[in-house]
Specification:
Blueprint (H helix, E strand, L loop, with lengths): L4 H7 L16 E2 L2 H11 L7 E7 L1 E2 L11 E2 L4 H18 L7 E9 L7 H12 L3 E12 L6 H9 L4 E7 L3 H6 L9 H10 L3 E8 L6 H13 L4 E6 L21 H17 L3 E3 L3 E3 L4 H7 L3 E4 L2 E4 L5 E5 L4 E3 L3 E5 L3 H11 L3 E6 L2 H16 L1 E3 H7 L4 H7 L4 H9 L3 E3 L3 E4 L7 H6 L17
Parallel strand pairs: 2-5, 2-14, 3-4, 5-6, 6-7, 7-8, 8-9
Antiparallel strand pairs: 1-17, 9-11, 10-11, 12-13, 15-16, 16-17, 18-20, 19-20
Length: 456
């Protein structure tokens, strides 16, 4: 059932996306020495597997909607210099890691990492493969812009071990892409998808809803076309219009944007379309085929979430990030590199590392993170499971979150939560407001003056 106008109006609030807890805008200055010590200590902390994130900030054309850390470039000299410093950072970090640990995931994000040549990608991968072994199901993934992707490049990716490609489709409507300054692919995406799948490479489609000119009807056509391409996963991100943080967004025609009820209608229609096609809804923006590891993890209540999206404990270990703006996600701490790629280059050349910001989590923050992750990933609030994970008693956990009792009562009354023997479950309607539900268990948000995107 589509949420009522009352619910839409009440819960259209600015709340964190909770890709981390606390969110990245709560990070404060951290020293390189603290970062290096945390890396060493992480070798003895579960999970033992290593997940690698590589940030490539360069784009051939900057999209106006983009909230990622990216920069335009006019020649490859800047890329070459950046990669030299990236190699240095990786080598220096490897010296701090226990090479008996196994790599379970390498993810190239951006920017547009598909701008790198086969050799440039291979050289980065070799830095890791020459020191570490990989798990049997290790994922080597890359985000690609369909506009600069060719069949030959797909062959090259397959030849050096990539087994997952995320296509940033955003929308199949060329008018929508043009109005947000997004390049138009030369190769039809259905043909591209078929070719990727013929190479036994898992395929993700990424979309953004809430862009100018989109309507629930037009986006439904986009999703219908996506489903016929049969990708393994479909991701639908909500566009966050925050021009004070992302100046390029000032170029966007806000009068042509959908907001509030119409935007939620797009999400609602999209959700039903994809689920009706046989996909499993993962959290609030991911969809996967039933045999996908994310779908299995959801069924087993073992789903997790980090800055790269949804993951499983088995496939994703502690995340070690490299490149400008990369966020390393350890069991008890976060560390972020300099966001400006020229400053990143300078820091690596002078210090061998580029850490600037981060956060060391307290015991209470780890408890809150466990609760919020359970809500966003597994759609439940299970006092006993949270207590077991944090080595606490269920009574202590319930007492700690007693500040949320009034808000929880509202969520129950509004039909977003349902009482269960173990605690609460998120209802089908509540799933569309899962960020709001998570925020009810965040004590810091009560007094926060930070900027967050709308939950709808």
């Amino acid at each position: 059932m589509f949420p009522s106008d009352y619910l839409i109006q009440k819960y259209q609030q600015n709340v964190p996306r909770y890709t981390s807890y606390p969110p990245a805008n709560y990070f404060c200055e951290q020293s390189i020495a603290t970062y290096k010590q945390a890396i060493v200590e992480s070798n003895a902390t579960a999970p033992n597997h290593i997940s690698i994130y590589i940030h490539i900030p360069f784009c051939s054309q900057l999209c106006w909607y983009c909230g990622c850390n990216s920069t335009g470039f006019t020649n490859r000299t800047a890329i070459t210099e950046y990669l030299q410093n990236l190699h240095t950072e990786i080598r220096n970090t490897i010296q701090l890691l226990d090479t008996q640990r196994k790599i379970s995931q390498i993810h190239f994000g951006g920017g547009t990492p598909s701008l790198l040549t086969k050799k440039e990608l291979y050289d980065i991968l070799s830095l890791f493969s020459s020191h570490f072994s990989f798990t049997n199901t290790a994922e080597i993934a890359i985000e690609c812009n369909p506009a600069n992707l060719t069949f030959a490049y797909i062959d090259e990716l397959a030849s050096i071990g990539f087994n997952r490609i995320s296509l940033g489709v955003q929308d199949f409507d060329k008018n929508v892409l043009t109005t947000v300054h997004r390049e138009i692919p030369n190769i039809p995406i259905p043909k591209m998808a078929l070719y990727i799948q013929s190479k036994n490479i898992a395929l993700n489609f990424d979309f953004i809803y809430g862009l100018p000119l989109q309507t629930s009807e037009s986006f439904a056509k986009t999703i219908e076309k996506a489903i016929t391409c049969n990708p393994d996963r479909i991701v639908t991100f909500s566009y966050a219009h925050m021009p004070s943080l992302k100046p390029l967004q000032k170029k966007i025609d806000t009068y042509a944007m959908v907001t509030g009820k119409e935007k939620l209608k797009i999400l609602y229609t999209t959700h039903n379309q994809i689920v009706d096609a046989g996909y499993i809804s993962i959290g609030f923006d991911h969809f996967a085929k039933p045999q996908d590891e994310l779908a299995r993890a959801l069924h087993e209540k073992k789903l997790h979430r980090n800055f790269q999206g949804y993951c499983t404990r088995e496939s994703t270990g502690q995340v070690y990030a490299f490149g400008s703006s990369g966020i390393t996600q350890l069991s008890h701490s976060f560390f972020q590199n300099n966001k400006n790629y020229t400053e990143y280059n300078k820091a690596i050349q002078e210090n061998g590392f580029a850490t600037t910001m981060g956060h060391i989590r307290s015991h209470n923050e780890l408890l809150i993170n466990t609760m919020i992750e359970m809500i966003l990933c597994n759609n439940i609030i299970d006092w006993k499971t949270v207590a077991t994970h944090c080595n606490l008693s269920p009574d202590y956990v319930q007492e700690f979150f007693s500040f949320s009792e009034i808000k929880v009562a509202e969520l129950l009354a509004d039909g977003l939560l349902q009482k269960e023997s173990y605690g609460f479950s998120v209802t089908k309607t509540g799933a569309f407001f899962s960020r709001n539900i998570a925020a009810a268990f965040d004590p810091v948000l009560v007094t926060s003056n930070k900027l967050f995107s709308s939950s709808i």
